[in-house]
Structure formats: C-alpha cells, structure tokens
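Subject: Sanity check before I submit

Could someone independently write out the structure tokens for this chain? I want to compare against mine line by line before I put it in a report. The sequence has 224 residues.
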Amino acid sequence: MKFFRSSPTSAPSPKAQARPTRHSSAMAELSRILKSEEPLSVLDIGPTSAANIRFFTERGHRIYSQDLLDASTDPSLVTKGEDGAAVVDSKKFLGENLAYPNAHFDLVLCWNLADYLDESLVKPVVGRLWSMMKPGAMLLAFFHTREAGPDAPFYRYHVTGSDLLEMNALNPKNAQRKDDTRAARAFKLQRVFNNRHIENLFRDFASIKFFLSRDNIREVLVVR
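---
Independent answer below. Compare away.
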C-alpha cells in the first residue's frame, strides 16, 4: 500500500460525481417477499455488487452473484455457424455458467441483461433460469424502450432501499480510459424488445407484470 504526502501547492481533487438513482416499482413489489422470515435464495446475474450482497445478507437471505454479460465475452465461446458466420456457442456457455441445481432460487435479478446479451444466448439463458427457479419464484428484468437510443449506457444496479436503486454506468458514452476493460468492450444495446417479444421470451412462466417508468425502461416481474 502506498501513502502520499499532501502538498500545499497541489490542486484539490474534484469531488466524486454522485451516481444517479431511480425508484423501482417492481422492487417495491418484491419488498413484501423479502420480509420473509424464511431465508430466500437470490441469484444476481448482473455485475457483482457489494451493496446488493449486503442488502440481502443483512435481511437473512442467501445471495449468489454471477456476471453473465462479462462471461459471455469469453473469446473461447466463439464458433462458426452453419453459414460460416461467427456465433457464440450457447451449449458451451451454459456448460460453464449457471451451474446451479433445479428449483433452487426464490428470486432472480436479471436486470437489463437481455438487452445487451448476444442474441444466441438470450433464450437459452432464460430457459436455464426457469429450470433453476422454484415454482412461484420471481424474476426481475429491465428492458429499454425504443426511445432509449442505441447508446443507452449499461448500468450496474445497486439495491439501496426497498424501492430505490443506485445506477453505476459501466460504459459511459465518453469513457476513454485505456485500462477500463468494460468500457473497451463497449457493451452496447443489442436490441429493443416490445411487449409481445417480452411475453414470448417468458412464455413458459406462470405470469408476467409490466411497470413502465419515466426513464425509458420497462420493469418486468415474472413468476415461475
């Protein structure tokens, strides 16, 4: 660990910019099951968040974290399809990720993964999540509306309250740091799902509920 002596002539360091927050109607609805006295098993498949781990463990729940978008960028997953074009091998991907027992989770936090994940992985991942969830378990997912635009930033969401999320942009529009590997990967919005597409994606689930917010995001709560 290095220590630096301050200099009276050095300029004051700029204050860290506060991260934006958003109120989540879906999280507010989930808060009732989080009050369960029985410990719940929660799967967070977004980028690892210490805030999320703390939020759920302080309430007596077990949380598992796996960054699926980051895992999907592994070059070893790329193969050639029947037409010779490069595709991501979904079987290999699922063989290396989401290795959990069937009917294990009470809650899955999918965040906005589907909007950024490679097309070939979206349906296989949702199918695997279905098998890992208990009957009656819930899944939270966010989907951009068309108004969000192709340069919509990819966020890490931190749960800071029963209906409040802190947003940390991992690919800000003007990121230029050479050592910022996430910015270098430039996670970009791959597609925009409409309601029919979303319903089709979760067609094997028992029910689906939409919440439309003011920041060009559809919040979706589905029940296994």
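---
OP: Matches mine. For the report I'm noting this point. Confidence is low (pLDDT under 50) at residues 1-13, 174-184.
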